[in-house]
Amino acid sequence: MLEFPGGLYALTPETADTGRLLTQVEAALTGGVAAVQYRDKSGDVVRRHEQASELVALCRRFGVPLIVNDDLRLADLTDADGVHLGRDDGSLREARIILGRDKFVGASCYQSLDLALAAQAAGADYVAFGSFFASPTKPAAQRAGLDLLRDAAPVIQVPLVAIGGITLANAPQLLDAGADSLAVLSALFDASDICASAHDLNQLFAAEPEE
Predict the structure, then answer these.
(1) Mean pLDDT, the chain, as a whole number?
(2) Could you give the CA distance from residue 50 to residue 102 in angstroms, rounded to a whole number?
(3) Dihedral sign, CA of 198, 179, 163, 171?
(4) Nearest CA among 199, 198, 179 for reference residue 190
(5) Other C-beta atoms within 10 Å of 176: how many?
(6) H or E segment at 54?
């Protein structure tokens, strides 16, 4: 099984402007993000295929994995580096069969350790918990507590990803509670300087004490 990289996990903003999206993601990659997730809930199949394909090529230049959110078929068609599935987005085992062992399969586990244990048993390469803080993109999302990360750390052997309203100010408490990776959208792509924001967030991982 591949090891999903710890660190800053960039979640892309949804936009019809492919050129702007690529410019934003390139700035984040230059700032040192460890992984990128392509998120687009629109029904525009052509746009989604174009953007995902372009992002795969861009991320490969930086040696960073591109994960497709919620769409196994798109991940397969564009030769993305993996897929991230929510509770209602399909089978983790099916994703593993289709994508193979050399691709990442991630799972949203919301506020549930039981879901994380099930995802781990099904072969997930990482599990994501959240929302930990109020999120501009999902303001109605249920909140997860820091104890969830502390409880998960001893029993989940794959990386723990924290998501939801994460900023430079509140991120350290997530790392202290056991998060291996921080999935960030607004604090990164709404910043006036995306590269600098990525760099600043990355410094939190550089400051982590060695085991």
Answers:
(1) 95
(2) 23
(3) negative
(4) 198
(5) 12
(6) helix 45-62
Residue 171, number of CB atoms within 10 A of its CB: 22
Q: Do residues 162 and 182 lie in contact, with contact meaning Cβ atoms separated by under 8 Å?
A: yes
- 138 a catalytic residue: yes
Residue found under tokens 């303001």: 139
Three-state secondary-structure class, residue 14: coil
- Please compute, for residue 75, the number of CA atoms within 13 A of its CA located in the half-sphere on the CB side: 30
Catalytic choice (96, 108, 131, 135)? 108
Q: Which of 39, 47, 112, 186 is catalytic?
A: 39
Q: Is 171 helix (H, G, I), strand (E, B) or coil?
A: helix
131 is catalytic: no
pLDDT in tens, 104-149: 999 999 999 999 999 999 999 999 999 999 887 777 778 999 999 9
Residue 107: beta bridge partners?
85, 127
The residue annotated as part of the active site, out of 47, 53, 112, 138, is 138
pLDDT band at 211 (very low <50, low <70, confident <90, very high): very low
DSSP SS3 for 178: coil
